[in-house]
Write a structure and sequence with these properties.
The protein is built from 7 helices and 23 strands. The protein is mainly beta. A hairpin with a 2-residue loop joins strand 6 and strand 7.
């Protein structure tokens, strides 16, 4: 059983240089990044069937918003969006976060909106995202840290009293130590992660309103979140994103399949919209629009094989509206200095969907061992618990947990959501842990 396992090379330690990865060696479709450039490690990951279209690594062009490739003409399947045009409006919830419910639409002189009309109105709602960070990789020589840089896309979905909120894919920002957003006018502004959910591959990042120039505020817009439940096969769609990290580009197509179930490399199943619009590396987190300019999906992945052509995937927006709202309301996360970071003190094992089915253990971070004298040892956390959230943010892997821990200092109290084996079944508990320091733990 896992708790008796002696193979120390497979263990991982919270807040150390080693974090275990769980790359599948099977031929199942995988989510993986685009062209990655690592300064400290040149080994490329194995090319697999399903590619996440985020994080184009090693590119410097992702910050410029130019070279829009529009396909002109009308999309017959899209209906008449001019008749559906509405005045921009926003709803405010109790937290003060505003999410747009409509975007103004213009139309051509003929009265039927063209792709160019939709793009003209939607382009100010889409941003380029550039990241710099580190990634943990497994190689013949063991576990190593590599520096990475890359690009993806994002959609402006709201604001609160002090921040502009942007939704993107989790895999775009998962390895980031720093994030920079580039708006439609070319203005570059630093951003920070607000909330993430790796199981849904979503993240919300925040830009401080005080850091955005008035001219930029006048150039950008908040996107409309539409209703993906009303999509029909053959309906026209438009994809906008930072393709290849070379600036925002536009592709068009139709809805090829609804409720398409695919699995990533960890065996996590997702139900996505399949389209034949080209979705390429760098497009991740960008907008999939209907012909009224409403966001009906978040571009996420594509099939990449010589036997497949024209199969891109997007997260249906109706599935994740509530999640986006929840992520938008979380406290913005700013990484603290490494010597100030809190220390939990566990050895752990990732439980993916395959292991979950094989062993009957919930997916998440399995607590293999609690180290004596650490914060975990002084809490109600138990060995064989499975950690699924920290302060409301889902964690699926040790790397997720390690990343979240980088936002908290020694002495901070965090709330862990765990699954505990009790009388033959797992039950959810919430545990408060006051984080210790690595230095104190090393003295034990």
């Amino acid at each position: 059983m896992m708790e008796n396992r002696e193979d120390q090379d497979r263990e991982t330690y919270i807040d150390t240089e080693t974090v275990e990865t769980n790359e599948s060696e099977s031929a199942a479709p995988q989510f993986s990044g685009g062209r990655r450039s690592r300064k400290n490690h040149a080994m490329a990951k194995k090319v697999t069937t399903l590619l996440l279209t985020g994080v184009l690594f090693g590119t410097a062009a992702g910050g410029t918003m130019f070279g829009v490739n529009m396909a002109a003409g009308r999309m017959a399947a899209g209906g008449n969006p001019a008749a559906q045009s509405t005045q921009a409006a926003s709803d405010a919830n109790a937290s003060g976060t505003q999410i747009a419910t409509a975007v103004p639409m213009t139309s051509s002189s003929s009265g039927s909106a063209t792709v160019s009309d939709v793009v003209s109105n939607a382009m100010p709602t889409v941003v380029a995202i550039n990241i710099k960070g580190t990634e943990t990789i497994q190689s013949f020589f063991g576990t190593q840290k590599a520096e990475v840089s890359g690009a993806g896309s994002g959609i402006i979905i709201g604001k609160n009293d002090s921040e502009l909120l942007i939704v993107t894919n989790n895999h775009v920002v998962a390895s980031s130590d720093s994030i920079q957003v580039t708006f439609t006018d070319g203005e570059k502004v630093d951003a920070a992660v607000k909330g993430t959910d790796s199981s849904k591959d979503l993240a919300v990042v925040a830009v401080q309103l005080k850091d955005i120039k008035d001219s930029t505020m006048g150039a950008i817009k908040i996107a409309t979140l539409g209703d993906s439940d009303k999509l029909q096969l053959g309906q026209g769609v438009i994809a906008i994103g930072n393709a290849l990290g070379e600036g925002q580009s536009v592709t068009t197509g139709i809805v090829s399949m609804l409720n398409k179930e695919i699995k990533d490399e960890d065996g996590t199943s997702r139900t996505l919209i399949q389209v034949d619009a080209a979705i390429n590396p760098g497009n991740s987190g960008g907008a999939l629009l209907d012909m009224s300019g409403n966001v009906i999906g978040i571009n996420s992945a594509k099939y990449a094989t010589t036997a497949v052509e024209g199969m891109g995937f997007a997260i249906p927006i109706s599935q994740v509206k509530e999640l986006i709202q929840n992520l938008s309301e979380q406290k913005t996360k700013i990484a603290v200095a490494a010597d100030e970071q809190g220390y939990l003190g566990i050895q752990m094992q990732n439980i993916d969907s395959a292991m979950s089915q094989a062993y009957g253990i919930p997916e998440g971070v399995y607590v293999y061992k609690i180290l004596d004298g650490t914060a975990a040892a002084g809490s109600e956390l138990r060995e064989r618990d499975v950690i699924t959230e920290i302060n409301g943010t889902q964690v699926s892997t040790g790397e997720d947990l390690h990343k979240q821990m980088s936002y908290y200092k020694t002495g901070d109290t965090v709330t862990l959501t765990v699954q505990t084996l009790d009388d033959g079944s797992y039950k959810e508990r919430k545990i408060e842990v006051r984080l210790g320091s690595r230095e104190d733990a090393d003295k034990m």
